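pinging the channel bc i need a second pair of eyes. not urgent but kinda urgent?? the chain im working w is below, pasted from the shared doc
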Amino acid sequence: MPSKGCREFLDHVNDLLEKIVRESSGQIEEAAQALVEAIRRDAIIHVAGAGGHSQIPAMEMFYRAGGLANASIVFGPGLGLFDGKPCLERVAGMGGATMAYHDVRPEDVVIVCNYYGMNAATIDMALAAKKRAAVVVGVTSKAFSENTPEDFVARHPSRKNLGEVVDIVIDTHTSADEQVVTVPGVSQPVGVASTMTSCLIVQLLVIRVVELCAEENIDPPVWMCTNIPGGDETNDRWLKKYIPRMRHLYPEGEEYVGI
């Protein structure tokens, strides 16, 4: 049987996931429609996580079996755990260069994932994507950003929240206190639910996009698992199509010839 703390966490997460389905479905539907239009235009869905673990839901959408093949991950320099401490998430000024590097176009969609929804790099990326006339979707906790003081050191110079600068905001409904389980005798709470809520949202987005494509007789670009027969052959089609526009998509093996 789960311990008291584990049971408390499981119940909290289950309630959160149900709340997302109940209260964020309209925004998920709106975002899914925007993604279908991008597919119809042969455009790219850029997914950015601006800082540390916020990159996890972005990775959840990129190059994954059962995921959208036209989803391109945006790894901003110095913003991920791969770079060591994500020390640049509080630094403004890189958004424009990052969106230019990824060749964001007006026909594209940009999804910006960030639990806090107010740090400088997050807002910078969203504003830069808007400047390039792309549709911008934010996945964030409105409760956290709206309860953060305007003069907090991590904020963007504009003092804006992610939900204020994007076209569509999908609320994770996570609380202003990210750690949700208190263990007796320990000062720091544990048990973080924000990553799971964001990953649920991006998976619901993918499912709804594919459903809408099927309803509209659009062939959805979906990756197949390469560890089952036919996977390599299926994915080769998407690799050849999308490699020219994706900075982090690479050929399989040594036989690839560009088109």
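so The chain has nine helices and seven strands. and The beta strands are 45-49, 71-74, 109-113, 135-140, 168-171, 179-181, 190-192. — does that match what u expected or am i reading it wrong
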